Amino acid sequence: MLGNQNDMFKKKNWVVIGVTNKKHRFGYRIWTLLQDLGYNVYGINPNINEIDGIKIYDNLREIEDNIDVINMVVNPEIGKNHLEVGHELGIQDVFFQPGSYDQEIIDLADKLGYRRVTGCVYASLS
Fold first, then answer.
1. CA dihedral 69, 124, 9, 104 (to 10 degrees)
2. Per-residue pLDDT tens digits for 72-88
3. What distance in Å separates the CA atoms of residue 12 and residue 53, rounded to the nearest whole number?
4. How many Å is the maximal CA-CA distance in the chain?
């Protein structure tokens, strides 16, 4: 179901799935922008242990805090599993970045009951 990005931006615990240590990529830029704006932000990338001294997680289950919003920065094939796990953990909001969604993952998000937004967090907040 469609969500409201302004409602999502009021929530404070975010996870960026697909965070990267490549500073020119949106996975890094979104993660740091959310931090700079005072959000509690976690990063998921199984290929990276830490970025700028901050722990990066392999998956959602490793994060001890409750997550309010998933920010999806990975391709849809990778994202599907994260949606399933997020649903199991009770996460209700997902923000799909350009390139992170196709009709199949949108249908899955709807089936799982997510409130979803498609757009660019970086452009919306900077």
1. -30
2. 999 999 999 999 999 99
3. 21
4. 37
CA 118-108-67 angle, 5° bins: 65
Antiparallel, parallel or unpaired: β 13-17 and 40-44: parallel
Q: Is 122 exposed, middle or buried, given 0-12, 13-18 or 19+ CB atoms closer than 10 A?
A: middle
51: β partners: 54
Three-state secondary-structure class, residue 67:
coil
pTM of the model: 0.94
Give per-residue pLDDT as tens, 34-85.
999 999 999 999 999 999 999 999 999 999 999 999 999 999 999 999 999 9
The whole-angstrom separation of Cα 68 and Cα 59 is 15
State how far the Cα of 8 lies from the Cα of 67, in Å rounded to an integer: 12
Pairing between β-strand 54-55 and β-strand 69-72 as defined by DSSP bridges:
unpaired
Chain position carrying tokens 């709807």: 110
